[in-house]
Design goal:
Blueprint lengths: L1 E6 L4 E8 L2 E9 L8 H11 L9 E5 L5 H18 L3 E4 L1 H6 L8 E9 L2 E10 L2 E12 H9 L5 E4 L3 H12 L3 E3 L9 H10 L17 H12 L1
Parallel strand pairs: 1-4, 4-5, 6-9, 9-10
Antiparallel strand pairs: 1-2, 2-3, 6-7, 7-8
Helix pairs in contact: 4-5
């Protein structure tokens, strides 16, 4: 089964191609450059290098958020267009869940996170059980201090993964103390191969109704709603 996975949900751009349980190729960059002009050439290059035609693909997998609103839209739009035009299944995977997958050898909980500004984070809680990653707490947008306090009550070690951990490390450490562990810096970059692996097991979604998981309304929408509540 040949699966193409696409992640443009955050600063990292990732594309992978797998065939069954074999990773054929991964493309990753961690640059502040426009994903919209770089992701299609990355897909084309991977397909060309692996001598795989689009018609040979069996499934498209995309990181559906949370993360950058613009970034998520880019990846989801491309994934939906490809799945529809090729008439193959489309699956979405949490951007946090596939980042958490890197913590498979940690004996405890795993909390991937992205910065959500103003002291808030996008995060969730995961763990590995019998070799499979499980969701303990669904992805959410919370103040970092509140998250630390909530996890402290579990009384278990927690591994934090993500490039933005450093921005909130002191706040989380105040709450968790010895329960807090930070992944090695090489694990903070989510691998698109992990995205493809998780996507194989995800059920297909209806292409036309598939939507990203932003978790929170974009600022303009929130302001519009607030204004009209007052009117």
């Amino acid at each position: 089964m040949k699966v193409l996975a696409i992640d443009t949900s955050n600063e990292v751009l990732g594309v992978s191609l797998i065939d069954g349980k074999k990773v054929l190729a991964e493309y990753m960059t961690n640059l502040k450059k426009n994903h919209s002009i770089r992701v299609m050439p990355a897909i084309q290059q991977i397909m060309k290098d692996c001598s795989v035609e689009p018609s040979e693909l069996d499934k498209i997998v995309v990181a559906k958020g949370p993360g950058s609103y613009t970034g998520i839209r880019i990846g989801v739009t491309i994934a939906k267009t490809m799945a529809w035009s090729l008439k193959i299944p489309l699956a979405g995977v949490s951007s946090l869940k596939f980042m958490a997958a890197a913590g498979r050898y940690f004996n405890g909980y795993i909390s991937p996170l992205f910065d959500a500004r103003r002291g808030r984070i996008y995060t969730g809680l995961y763990r590995y059980q019998d070799g499979r990653i499980e969701t303990v707490i669904d992805d959410c947008n919370v103040p970092a201090a509140d998250w630390g306090e909530r996890l402290r009550k579990y009384g278990r070690p927690v591994l934090f993964i993500g490039q933005d951990v450093a921005l909130h490390e002191d706040t989380l450490k105040d709450q968790l103390q010895h329960q807090m562990f930070v992944a090695d810096w090489t694990l903070h970059i989510p691998r698109p191969g992990e995205l493809a692996k998780l996507g194989i097991e995800q059920p297909a979604e209806e292409v036309h109704t598939f939507v990203p998981n932003y978790i929170r309304l974009v600022e303009a929408e929130a302001k519009w709603l607030e204004k009209h509540k007052r009117d």
